[in-house]
Design goal:
Shape: flat
Radius of gyration: 29 Å
Largest sheet: none
Helix content: 55-70%
Structural class: mainly alpha
Number of strands: 0
Length: 312
């Protein structure tokens, strides 16, 4: 009995170590991910970082964009930008688009929350809300150019309800900027809507069921489940909205060309480069805009850190 007990209590021999792969196989295994990254990294360097480096280099010259010769001017272009207030006054136009971005985020979050629940025809409404984002920006600009013209679609619709106005919607700076900002809300709300809807649908359904058992209504579910669960996506939408408000170009350039007080910083930069042949100054303006967007993004990330949300 003593021998059997001793045999049972004896530790089993350690398992043999798995055979180590050859050195060549380990090297190939480690290099495989980099082989797949060669193409995208080459494209990223060629079409993103190399043009940015050239733009920064041109910002220190007086190049006109045509002549093969260019002269180094140091920080002269940046000094001119900072000493000419009219070059920065166009940033006030971005305030209209910033306010429109807030409306756009609130509206997209509202529709995403409503359509995340069991609502009739919700797939139809999802398509309706996302469809404007799929349309080409040039087409949207021309459509709304006829929409806001005198006696156009908007005036015709208002006349049906007995409202007759001789107001030129694109004739004054205030009404023109409000109209253009409204077009941006209509076009880009679908993108935020899809982002919010995807984030809401990724929240486990058991949380909603537990909340309903505890007597929580829709508002409580939004406040304590949906809002914390989509915080990272909401933070991303805010960053995209702020950067987009500072770099608006497509809609105002097509509809007004920057006239009637609707010129944005990007439209001004394009005119400096291609209309006044000041590519060096335009490159400096583009670098300044890039730094402003990066600074705003950094501040936003510091104020609202992207913490991991654990609802379970």
């Amino acid at each position: 009995m003593t021998g059997r007990a001793a045999a049972r209590g004896k530790e089993p021999p350690p398992a043999p170590a798995p055979p180590q792969a050859p050195r060549g196989a380990r090297l190939r295994r480690g290099a495989t991910p980099w082989l797949f990254l060669i193409a995208p990294l080459a494209l990223l360097l060629t079409f993103t970082y190399a043009p940015i480096a050239n733009m920064v280099a041109y910002s220190f010259t007086d190049w006109d964009g045509v002549s093969p010769e260019l002269h180094y001017t140091g920080a002269g272009n940046y000094t001119e930008l900072l000493t000419r207030p009219e070059l920065f006054e166009v940033f006030f136009v971005s305030g209209y688009y910033l306010a429109a971005s807030a409306v756009q985020i609130v509206a997209a979050l509202y529709f995403a929350t409503i359509l995340s629940f069991d609502v009739r025809f919700r797939n139809f409404f999802k398509g309706v809300l996302f469809f404007p984002y799929l349309i080409n920006g040039v087409a949207i600009g021309f459509v709304f150019l006829y929409f806001f013209q005198d006696g156009g679609t908007l005036d015709s619709v208002l006349s049906v309800f007995g409202v007759h106005t001789d107001h030129a919607w694109l004739g004054t700076p205030t009404s023109a900027n409000i109209s253009l900002a409204g077009v941006s809300v209509w076009r880009y709300m679908g993108l935020n809507f899809v982002l919010f809807l995807g984030a809401i649908q990724s929240i486990p359904g058991e949380l909603y069921e537990a909340a309903e058992l505890d007597g929580a209504n829709r508002w409580h579910q939004f406040r304590y489940i949906i809002a914390p669960g989509i915080k990272p996506v909401l933070s991303l939408s805010v960053i995209l909205s702020i950067s987009g408000s500072l770099s608006v170009f497509e809609i105002p350039y097509i509809m007004t060309g920057g006239a009637t007080g609707t010129e944005t910083f990007v439209i001004q930069t394009v005119k400096l480069a291609f209309q006044f042949n000041k590519t060096g100054l335009a490159s400096a303006a583009a670098v300044v805009l890039l730094l402003i967007v990066l600074a705003v993004t950094w501040v936003q990330r510091r104020l609202v850190p992207d913490d991991r949300v654990d609802l379970v």
